[in-house]
Amino acid sequence: MSKKFLDKSYDLETQEATLAHYDQWAASYDAEIAENGYATPGRIALALAKFQSDMSEPVLDFGCGTGLSGLALRLQGFETVDGMEPSARMLEQARAKDAYRQLTQIDAADRQPIPKGAYRLITGCGVLGTGAAPPAVFDSILHALPRGGLFAFSYNDHALEDPAYTGKLNEWLDCSAARLLFREHGDHLPGINLKSTVYVIEKA
Ligand SMILES: C[S@@+](CC[C@H](N)C(=O)[O-])C[C@H]1O[C@@H](n2cnc3c(N)ncnc32)[C@H](O)[C@@H]1O
C-alpha cells in the first residue's frame, strides 16, 4: 500500500511546506483522492457551465495539481482548459492527462501569477484554503479577471472555518466589486466526511 498524505494536508503552515507536501504526494494523489470520492471538481465544472454557454472560451484551472479539476472541466464540455500550478511534480502528472492546452509552472511567491485580463473564466478547485494557497491569492485572481469575468471555486470545511478565507470573499461581495451567482454546500471528500462550498462569482 502506498504512503498516505491526505491526513497531513490541512495543517501545513508555510508555502514551502505545502509545495514539498504536494511534490511528495504527486504520484499517489489521484489514487488516494479517488479512494475518498473526490466530488468537488465535477461540482465546480457543473456550476461554471450554468453561467457559460460558449464552451470554446478558454478556462484557467488555477492550482490545477495533477489535473483532476481540468479533466472535470473537459468532461463537462469546456473545450479549452489551461492550467497553472507551483508544484513541478503535480504538474508532471497533469501533463500526462492530456486535458490541457497549456500548462505553466508558477512561483507561489509571485503576487500576480495570472496575466491581467488573460482569462475571463478561472477556476480554483481545492486551491484556496489551509494547507494550500493563502487568502491573498484570492485577490490576485480577482485582480486578473476582467470586468464580467467569472471565478468558480471551492472552500472546504476547514477553509470555511477560517475567517481569513470567508473574509476575503466577503470583502469583494460587500463593496459590490463582485457579485455572488452561485453557492452550494455539498460533498468534497466523502471518505473523510469533508464537505465544501462551491461558489461562482462575477467580477463587477
Ligand atoms: C488540493 S490540491 C488541488 C489540486 C487540483 N485543483 C484538484 O482539484 O485536484 C491543491 C493545489 O494547490 C496548489 N497550490 C498551493 N499553493 C498555491 C498557490 N499559492 N498558488 C496556486 N496553487 C497553489 C498545490 O500545489 C496543489 O496542487
Verbal overview:
- By secondary structure, this protein is α/β, with parallel strands linked by helices.
- The protein has one domain (37-108, 117-203): Vaccinia Virus protein VP39 (Rossmann fold), CATH 3.40.50.150.
- It contains seven helices and seven strands; from the N terminus they run ααβαβαββαβααββ.
- Strands 3-2-1-4-5-7-6 form a seven-stranded mixed beta sheet, with helices on both faces.
- Strand 2 (81-85), helix 4 and strand 3 (102-105) form a beta-alpha-beta unit.
- Helix 1 (15-35) runs parallel beside helix 4 (88-97).
- The protein is globular.
- The model has no long low-confidence stretch (mean pLDDT 97).
- S-adenosylmethionine (SAM) is lined by residues 18-19, 22, 41, 63-65, 68-69, 85-87, 90, 108, 125-127, 132-133, 137.
- Residues 18-19, 22, 41, 63-65, 68-69, 85-87, 90, 108, 125-127, 132-133, 137 line the site of S-adenosylmethionine (SAM).
